Amino acid sequence: MRARHFVIGVVVGMVGLAASWFLAVDHWLAVSPPPVSWSYKQFLLENVPAPRLIIVAGSNAHYSIDPAVLERRYRVPVINLADNGSYPLTHKLYTRLRYARSGDLVIMPREWSQYALPG
Questions:
Q1: Which of 35, 51, 52, 84 is the most exposed place for a label (fewest CB within 10 A)?
Q2: Distances in whole angstroms, Cα of residue 15 to Cα of each of 3, 5, 9, 46, 108
Q3: Over the stretch 85-110, which tens digit does the pLDDT of each residue have?
Q4: Is 41 in contact with 81 (CB distance < 8 Å)?
């Protein structure tokens, strides 16, 4: 009987310890949400004044376009909104370009799949 009580006590103790550890970490160590609305790219899109150069493309633009070079050349802020290239165009237009303002220049380069796939 003693071994059974010991095993039950250990199991209950471990569950209690795991639950208290989770609550302690959640209460004292969890980071509060960031002060920006969604992501840093979205924060820039909403708060950088026009005129701006906005790049809306897939990951090709993320790895191949250097915003610092464009900023030095054209003397306007550059926001590179590169994400997954397979997102539909309507999604990109609705979520990103609704923040475009008068004077902004939007660049939407084609993805490699649009050159490689037939049709």
A1: 35
A2: 18, 15, 10, 46, 53
A3: 777 777 777 777 788 888 888 888 87
A4: yes
